[in-house]
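Entry for the shared binder. Reason: the reviewer on the internal report wants the predicted structure included alongside the sequence.
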Amino acid sequence: MRKLSLVFMVMAILLMAAPVYAQGTAPAEHTWSVPIGAGIGMGIAAGLAGLGQGKVASGVAEALARNPGARPGIQLALFLGLAFIESLVLFTFVMIYLRTSW
């Protein structure tokens, strides 16, 4: 039941955001919604990446505690995983920068 209410809440938020993209008289770079949306988007991206990196580090710590001999392979997977997670945040930052600099 909780999952269903979360889905409805997300759908309601997305539907309320739709009028922001309606055509208006002001050019897109002078609207108030672009910087606010950029800040919210970057906050969500950074927050979720932080949670993901925490889960990766937790998994690596557990794996090393169970099998210290597999350290080189685990360490390589750790660095690759963290790099991919961080690259998603950087891609989000670039997209937000390109959108707000028009």
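Summary line for the report: The first helix runs from residue 2 to 17.
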